[in-house]
């Protein structure tokens, strides 16, 4: 179990959320999969362990994690929400063929925020950056 999971669970406790085995499993899956799964994917991955769990349970827990500020919902072109347990500042690169999303970080994007504040007088709360392309797997298939 990664330290990310431990940290997230501690954070949840401070918000007064009860940590059920299902919640623990959903959060762990989200943090460890890092491929921004949809609620359906999470459900399918965990169903063997939790036969009584429904897709609705997964959704409700994801909503709760989002309210606690621990999970972000990513809505992109394919209409299915994906969920990201990494709420630190990072950006996404998205495959236009298979829809896979990967994270990357680039420090000078923080300067973009600061420049924007200077130029506009806005107080910037965040930035969402998406790059689009074809991932390695898909481009290999094309050749």
TrEMBL record:
It holds the Pfam family FUR. It comes from the Bacteria. InterPro entries: FUR (IPR002481), Fur_C (IPR043135), WH-like_DNA-bd_sf (IPR036388), WH_DNA-bd_sf (IPR036390). Zn(2+) binds at residues 95, 98, 135, 138. GO terms for molecular function: DNA-binding transcription factor activity; transcription cis-regulatory region binding; zinc ion binding. The keyword Repressor applies. GO terms for cellular component: cytoplasm. GO terms for biological process: negative regulation of DNA-templated transcription; regulation of secondary metabolite biosynthetic process. It is found in: Cytoplasm. Keywords: Cytoplasm, DNA-binding, Manganese, Metal-binding, Repressor, Transcription, Transcription regulation, Zinc. SUPFAM superfamilies: Winged helix' DNA-binding domain. The keyword Metal-binding applies. Its cofactor is Zn(2+). Binds 1 zinc ion per subunit. Gene3D superfamilies: 3.30.1490.190, Winged helix-like DNA-binding domain superfamily/Winged helix DNA-binding domain (1.10.10.10). Its main location: cytoplasm. Manganese-dependent repressor that controls a regulon of oxidative stress resistance and iron-storage proteins. May act as a hydrogen peroxide and organic hydroperoxide sensor. Belongs to the Fur family. This is Peroxide-responsive transcriptional repressor PerR. It comes from Paenibacillus rhizophilus.
């Amino acid at each position: 179990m990664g330290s990310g999971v431990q940290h997230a669970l501690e954070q949840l406790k401070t918000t007064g959320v009860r940590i059920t085995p299902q919640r623990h499993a959903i959060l762990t899956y989200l943090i460890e999969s890092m491929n921004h799964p949809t609620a359906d994917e999470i459900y399918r991955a965990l169903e063997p362990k939790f036969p009584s769990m429904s897709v609705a349970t997964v959704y409700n827990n994801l909503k709760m994690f989002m309210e606690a500020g621990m999970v972000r919902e990513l809505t992109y072109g394919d209409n299915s929400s994906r969920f990201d347990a990494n709420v630190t500042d990072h950006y996404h690169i998205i495959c236009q063929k298979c829809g896979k999303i990967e994270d990357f970080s680039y420090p000078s994007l923080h300067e973009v925020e600061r420049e924007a504040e200077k130029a506009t007088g806005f107080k910037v709360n965040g930035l969402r950056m998406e790059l689009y392309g074809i991932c390695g797997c898909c481009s290999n298939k094309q050749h």
